[in-house]
Each structure stands twice: as C-alpha cells, then as structure tokens.
Write a structure and sequence with these properties.
This protein has helices at 18-26, 53-68, and strands at 2-11, 42-49, 74-81. 28% of the residues lie in helices and 29% in strands. The chain has a single domain (2-81), classed as Mth169, Chain: A (2-Layer Sandwich). It has two helices and three strands; from the N terminus they run βαβαβ. It has 89 residues and is an alpha+beta fold. A three-stranded antiparallel sheet has the order 2-1-3, with helices on one face. 8% of the residues are buried. The longest helix is centred in the C-terminal third of the chain and has 16 residues, at 53-68.
C-alpha cells in the first residue's frame, strides 16, 4: 500500500534562526507591519510503499534521523496523510 508523507523540519526552540530574523526585519520595509515570530524550515513530501501506516511512519522517522533532519538542532514533524491527498507537481 502507498502512504503519502509530509515532513516538516523546524529548528529547536531557543536556537537562533538568522534567516527567519532577516525575513522578519525586512517585512516592514515591504509594507507588512505587525508580523513577528518568523521561522524558516524545510518541508518534504513523498510516498512510501509499506504494508501498514505504522511501517510507513517508521520509514519516514528513519529517513529523518539519518538524512532529512539534524536532530542536534532540528525536530521533524511527520504526518501520514490520506492516499492521494498530497499535492504533487
């Protein structure tokens, strides 16, 4: 069975996010006032073929641990979504 996976990678709370801060500082000059707490991350979308949703999630977790995220400074949020609901290019 195929499972659509969405992984969001975010910096750990309390760590500096210089890219987010630069964007936040630039927004007022572009006319966007009152925006704060900007954080930059990564998002991955992919399909995993696995016998069960639990095994698809386990595969995604292993991918995050070994390649997609740096667990020292980032955390990964994994969502298994209904088959076919992940928008593909």
């Amino acid at each position: 069975m195929s499972y659509d996976i969405v992984v969001e990678i975010r910096g750990l709370a309390g760590l500096a996010d210089p890219e987010g801060l630069a964007i936040e500082r630039a927004l007022p000059s572009l006319g966007f006032e009152g925006v704060r707490g900007v954080h930059v991350g990564k998002m991955f979308r992919f399909v995993v073929d696995a016998p069960s949703e639990a095994e698809a999630r386990q595969t995604a977790e292993e991918m995050c641990d070994r390649l997609l995220a740096n667990p020292v400074i980032e955390r990964a949020e994994i969502r298994v979504v209904a088959d076919g609901s992940v928008e593909r290019p």
